[in-house]
Amino acid sequence: MPNINSVTKSSVSKYGVFGYPVSQSLSPVMQNSAFSKAGLPAVYQAFEVKPEELESSILKAQADGFMGLNLTIPHKEAVLKFDFLNPDSFSKMAGAVNTLRFSNGFIEGFNTDAGGAMLALEYEEIHPAGKKILVIGAGGASRSLSFLFSKIASELKIINRTAERAEKLAADIFSHLPEDLQNKKISGGGFADILNDISNADIILQTTELGMGVYESFSVFDQIPNFCSGEERAVLLKKYLTSDKVVFDIVYHPKETKFLKESRAAGAKTINGMMMLVFQGALAFEIWTGQKSDISVMRQAVLEALDNNQSITTNR
């Protein structure tokens, strides 16, 4: 893997992703396919950057003529503390930046994760405007998605294993709503009433790491003390995860998490996080180049990489 300190200036436009770890990010194969299709002389590489190296590495990339960067775990929130960053209003509000653009001496910050999730739903002909949305998790991904979806949902509830985190996030989101939207119900809570929360929702967004990596064998329901299992669980879930429900899990590897398998078996429509990955990358591509990318080419690159097992994380 290249080191940012070994990169030299060249006539080719340079882009990259900073993360720790980052070796199995799918962003390089996806973005390089987009640049190639567009006929742009550009290269996109993954760079392993430790948290304590983030500030100096971003400034080094700027000095070396990089045009843009993506940031993944654990840098999306940390970058906001740097004085050199000019974040847009949404990324500042959401508390996370995943895309940097170097322009006229400035370093601009954007968040394309939430927009990627929105476009992924629309790609599946799911239109969240006016719908009741349940968000599972209260971490960084939940925060950016919840801020965006709160503007268009008729009702939004955030639940988390630690209820206080969900309640705090919900209160923060409500405080940022414009005055004309403050009649909207935005709430937070724990997992104790998850089945009723699912019953009340039209769209369920699963934003935690459950179902991937070391948590691959776990579902959200496994986090609830004394929750039933086996055939008893399957019968119970059929009463709640009905065919009118949409369950969207931001995890894309494996292609179907345990939570999605359970939801699909119960009868709900299920969507994994692959197209969110593609669309957030496409939005970053457009920020950098001013051009639309070829979604089908990016999607195919990701599919082939997943089939070749090139990624075992959801680092974007």
TrEMBL record:
Bilayer-crossing regions: none
InterPro entries: Aminoacid_DH-like_N_sf, NAD(P)-bd_dom_sf, SDH_C, Shikimate_DH, Shikimate_DH-bd_N, Shikimate_DH_fam, Shikm_DH/Glu-tRNA_Rdtase
The enzyme's E.C. designation: 1.1.1.25
Domain SDH C-terminal residue range list: 276-303
GO biological process annotation, one example: amino acid biosynthetic process
Residues at the active site: 76 (proton acceptor)
Quinate/shikimate 5-dehydrogenase/glutamyl-tRNA reductase domain span: 129-208
Domain of life: Archaea
Entry similarity comment: Belongs to the shikimate dehydrogenase family.
Protein name: Shikimate dehydrogenase (NADP(+))
